[in-house]
Design a protein that fits this description.
Helix content is 49%, strand content 15%. It is of the alpha+beta class. The strands form 2 sheets. Strands 4, 5, 6, 7, 8, 9, 10 and 11 form an 8-stranded antiparallel beta sheet that branches. Strands 1-2-3 form a 3-stranded antiparallel beta sheet, with no helix packed on it.
């Protein structure tokens, strides 16, 4: 780097060799936000409505502040576009495309953040990106992702609470995420998972570690602590709240104060964690000492790289536009072709007050059947023209939601359904009505399977893969969920046999109905 290009740290204003690259970066970031405005708007909407991800509003101001505090150090570097970063952006654009094809918000929002982050090395080069490594990585805390951890966190919370109660000498009867103690009924719901505490702790903990430590080891250790502490603290919080309710006759810690006590306890724990972590703080580097460029960077302007960047960010939208015009948008008509087979007779559905909690299907089919005194229910939810509000695979689509006060899922696993074309893996769940431990509660055994791209698949991930493949092949996004269920009597094996007999006799008719619906 020539002497004329190395600005003094005290030179006023923006260094000359930074003016055009910085302007190009700002234009690139604005273009990305404009092209992917629907994804960006969806992120902002989640920040505004979800307490779990409300911190996302603060991420961008924090990133800008972290960059600003390094302005003197960056002045010594020479920006230069990087072709390799554009190649990586191509991967991020592909991720966005696949996520958009199957309406996975987490994938599209993660991909947009990757595009914004990679735009920095693409326009300014890797030396600048490396100097801004933490601020760029911190951008990913803006992505509202983490709900996939909620079921596991809820299970751990329930396990610990029940174990702690029993060790305290309190008898507990548990089914799923609900349990009964002598003083009343308790349930571990989404708010008890601790996901809010965990995400808040990791976000603030990472920022604290970056600002207070220079050693990578200390930073990694503190981040690890910020992950473990809120998980354990949430277990203790749940146990303490149940104990407060138990010994107070359920007069405290059972309403709004339940959440107040939870956040108060969490705040105290986190403050103690930061107070202890501050004892090992290290001196901050001199932010006014410019970094020195290495490798002989010359600050060349590379129009070809910037043109490639433009093509990369535009390409996914061209593909989506073409596929949208090939999509069938006619409202589907779902009918069970040929009626019931194999001696099954139409009858009232068992437990008609229950239905799978699949949101906004394009069409639904309900069918009750009976044979030899064993009733079976059939539910098909059909999806077409899927988007963020209407999609087959979603965290909000469940057999029973956690907030359902009338039904609960008390057991889950897998089974093999004897479909006419061969055995098909299905998700199996045991459902229960009314409160845990009450007499006369109705129990159902349910099998769930997805029909996507003319295939029957059990897992959410495989359903998404098949959905993306179907769209890329120009076959549209028509897909469905099929649920068969039956009451569980004293002999639970009879319920399994009834479901097996029903799908063996009617599986072919169900698939034929779905295929005909696709063709209409």
């Amino acid at each position: 780097m020539s002497a004329s290009m190395a600005p003094s740290s005290s030179a006023p204003g923006l260094p000359a060799h930074w003016r055009r690259p910085l302007a190009l970066l700002i234009l690139t970031l604005l273009a990305l936000l404009l092209l992917y405005r629907e994804t960006a708007s969806a992120m902002v909407a989640i920040w505004l409505r979800s307490d779990t991800y409300a911190h996302g509003i603060l991420v961008l101001p924090i990133v800008l502040w972290l960059v600003w505090r390094q302005r003197h150090r960056l002045a010594g570097l020479v920006p230069e576009p990087s072709p390799m970063a554009v190649v990586l952006m191509l991967g991020a654009a592909l991720l966005w495309l696949l996520g958009d094809l199957v309406a996975v918000n987490a994938a599209t929002q993660l991909a947009l953040t990757m595009l914004l982050v990679l735009a920095v090395p693409a326009v300014l080069g890797w030396q600048v990106a490396w100097a801004l490594l933490f601020p760029l990585c911190f951008m990913f805390f803006a992505v509202p992702i983490g709900d996939f951890m909620m079921p596991r966190l809820m299970e751990w919370t329930a396990d610990f609470t029940v174990l702690a109660l029993r060790m305290s000498g309190i008898p507990v009867y548990r089914e799923g995420q609900q349990f009964v103690i002598p003083s009343g009924h308790w349930s571990v719901v989404e708010a008890c998972s601790g996901i809010r505490y965990l995400i808040a702790s990791v976000t603030v903990g990472a920022l604290f570690a970056y600002l207070n430590y220079r050693s990578a080891r200390r930073r990694a250790l503190f981040v690890l602590v910020s992950i473990l502490v809120p998980i354990v603290a949430n277990w203790l919080r749940a146990y303490i709240i149940v104990m407060l309710g138990h010994y107070s006759g359920n007069t405290i810690a059972t309403g709004v104060d339940h959440l107040i006590y939870g956040w108060l306890f969490f705040g105290i724990v986190i403050m103690l964690m930061f107070a202890i972590g501050a004892r090992w703080a290290e001196p901050s580097p001199d932010m006014k000492q410019p970094l020195v460029a290495t490798g002989g960077a010359a600050g060349r302007f590379r129009p070809a790289v910037l043109l490639a960047l433009l093509l990369v960010v535009l390409a996914p939208h061209g593909v989506v536009w073409a596929l949208e015009h090939a999509q069938n948008h006619t409202p589907p008509q779902l009918v069970l072709q040929g009626g019931l087979q194999g001696g099954w007779q139409a009858a009232e559905r068992p437990s008609p007050d229950w239905k799978p909690a699949f949101q906004n299907p394009s069409a639904e089919l309900f069918q009750g059947a009976i044979k030899e005194g064993q009733p079976v229910g059939l539910y098909i939810g059909y999806y077409r023209s899927q988007n963020t509000e209407r999609k087959l695979v979603s965290s909000s689509n469940q057999l029973v939601t956690y907030s359902d006060k009338d039904w609960a899922e008390v057991g889950a696993g897998t089974a093999s359904a004897p479909w006419p074309g061969g055995a098909v893996p299905v998700r199996q769940a045991e459902l229960r009505s009314s409160l845990v431990g009450s007499a006369g509660a109705v129990r159902l055994l349910a099998w769930q399977v997805y029909w996507v791209n003319d295939r029957l698949v059990a897992g959410d991930a495989m359903a998404k893969v098949q959905g993306a493949l179907s769209r890329l092949l120009g076959r549209g996004d028509d897909s469905a969920v099929v649920v068969v269920y039956t009451p569980i009597g004293e002999a639970g094996t009879r319920a399994q046999d009834a479901l097996a007999a029903f799908v063996q006799a009617n599986g072919q008719a169900i698939e034929a109905s779905l295929q005909q619906t696709r063709q209409r």
